[in-house]
Amino acid sequence: MRVQRQIWGHIPLLHITPDQCEKVALPTVVFFHGHTSAKEHNLHYAYQLAEKGLRVILPDAHLHGERSEGLDNVQISLRFWEIVLTSIEELAFLQKELHKQDLVVGEPGVGGTSMGGITTLGAMTVYPWISVAAVMMGAGNYVELAQAQMAQYESRGFKLPVSEEERERMLSTLAIFDSVQHQAKFNGRPIYFWHGEQDMTVPFEPTYRLYKELKKHYEAVPEKITFTREREAGHAVSRKGMLEATEWLAKYLSN
C-alpha cells in the first residue's frame, strides 16, 4: 500500500493505492472524515480498501486538518453546514480530477463517518454518478437536523448570529440535499448504513427511519440496501462496521 500526501486544486488529501498502482486506473472511493477530525483518522478504512485493490481519496474538509483556521469548537460547530455543503461541492471537483488523471474505473464510490456520512447522504441526492455509498453514523434529514441543532443552541441561552431570513434561506438550501425529501434520487444504488443505537451525537432513530423509507424504493433490488445496527454502540464505529463497510464498497466497485 502506498500513501501520498497531495493537494488537488486547493484540497489537501491523502491518496492511497495498492503498491505499484499509483498511475493505474482503479475502482475508487472518496471517503470523508467526521466533524473536528481530519483525513488521517480514516486511514484504517483506506488500508482495508487498498488491500482489496481499490484507490482511496481522503480529503481534508473545509476548516479541518491542513485547512484548519484555528477555530474553537463552538465557532466550528456554527459553520457545520457550510463545511458539509463545501465537501459536497468539492466532491464534484474530485470526481472530475480522477477522470482527468485517468485514475478511476467507472465512477467512484463515496463514504464517510459522522459528518462524512452526512456529507455522503447529501451527495447521493445531487450526484447520480455515485456508484455505491457507505454511511457510517450519518444522517440524511438535513432540515430536521439543522432545526434541532439551532434549538439546542438556543435552549442553552446562546443567541445564533443569524436573522430569521438567513435561517429560512439556510433551511431551504439544505432542503435541496435532504435525503428524506429526495428518496427517489437514490435510484437503487447500493448503500450501506452503520449506526450505534446509543449514539448521542447523530441520533440513531432518524437515520433508521430514513433507511426503512428508502427500502420501499429498493423493492426490485433489496440486496442493494442494508443497515447494521449495534445495540450497545455509541458514536464510534465498531471494527465489525468498518470491515462490513469496506467489504460493501469493494464488492460493488469491483463488479
TrEMBL record:
Q: Which SUPFAM superfamilies match?
A: alpha/beta-Hydrolases (SSF53474)
**Keyword Magnesium in record:** no
Q: Does the keyword Nucleus apply?
A: no
Report which superkingdom the organism of origin falls in: Bacteria
Q: Which key words are in the record?
A: Hydrolase
What Pfam families does the database record attribute to this sequence? Peptidase_S9
Q: Which residues form the Peptidase S9 prolyl oligopeptidase catalytic domain?
A: 109-253
Q: What is this protein called?
A: Esterase
| Source organism (scientific name) | Planococcus kocurii
